[in-house]
Amino acid sequence: MTAKPRARLLVKTPGKHVDPRWALLREVVAGHAARPGGLLPALHNVQDRLGFVPPELISEIALEFNLSRAEVHGVITFYPHFRSAPAGRHTLEVCRAESCQALGAERLAEHARSRLGCDFHATTGDGAFSLEPVYCLGLCAQSPAVMLDGQPHARVTPDKLDRLLDVARELEPYNAEDVQ
Ligand code: FES
């Protein structure tokens, strides 16, 4: 019996603007679908390329893997690593593992939430910062620790965190539209 060709959603959906990157993503997803256990690698690959897994892509992924949209959505929401929206321009990761917890990480986490006005696994309203937990940065002897844009920082106090966030903001490219 000849396999029925699958419908292609991303590049031929009539009447919709199609992001040209999605043609490539479709090939990536299809490549993983041919392998057992390919769903997670496919999702990682999409997120590595785009920074998130667009909700509009779920139908295509479900089709390729012969799953329902709910099943794919369930996998994406089960793993906090996966994003359904783009990350902020900066990513602050606060270590929440044991050594840091013992030396004030909870207070630091609370300060980060309050200062940024968003919870973990979320992004500030202006898109500047995403706040993420991390479980040990290898700086246990200098707890509490954070990572800002891939750069580790040790013995972080709330004041030090404020300074780090201020510097990150100051280093952002000047955007005339931001200054009224
Ligand atoms: S527990 Fe935080 S760096 Fe190791």
Compile the SSE list and pairings.
Layout: H1 21-33, H2 39-50, H3 58-65, H4 69-78, E1 90-95, H5 98-102, H6 105-116, E2 122-123, E3 129-134, E4 146-148, E5 151-153, H7 158-170
Helix pairs in contact: 1-2, 1-3, 3-4
The structure holds FE2/S2 (inorganic) cluster (FES).
FE2/S2 (inorganic) cluster (FES) binds at residues 95, 97-100, 136-140, 143, 145.
Protein name: Formate dehydrogenase subunit gamma
EC number: 1.2.1.2
Keywords: Iron, Iron-sulfur, Metal-binding, Oxidoreductase
Describe this structure in words.
The protein has 180 residues and is α+β, with helices and mostly antiparallel strands. The protein has two domains: 1-83, Orthogonal Bundle (Arc Repressor Mutant, subunit A), CATH 1.10.10; 90-172, Glutaredoxin, CATH 3.40.30.10. 41% of the residues lie in helices and 11% in strands. The chain has helices at residues 21-33, 39-50, 58-65, 69-78, 98-102, 105-116, 158-170; strands spanning 90-95, 122-123, 129-134, 146-148, 151-153. The chain has a five-stranded mixed β-sheet, with helices on one face. A hairpin with a 2-residue loop joins β4 and β5 (151-153). α3 crosses α4 (69-78). The longest helix is centred in the first third of the chain and has 13 residues, at 21-33. The protein is elongated, with a radius of gyration of 20 Å. Residues 1-15 and 174-180 have low confidence and may be disordered. It binds FE2/S2 (inorganic) cluster. Keywords: Iron, Iron-sulfur, Metal-binding, Oxidoreductase. InterPro entries: NADP_DH_HndA-like, NuoE_N, Thioredoxin-like_sf. This is Formate dehydrogenase subunit gamma. Its EC number is 1.2.1.2.
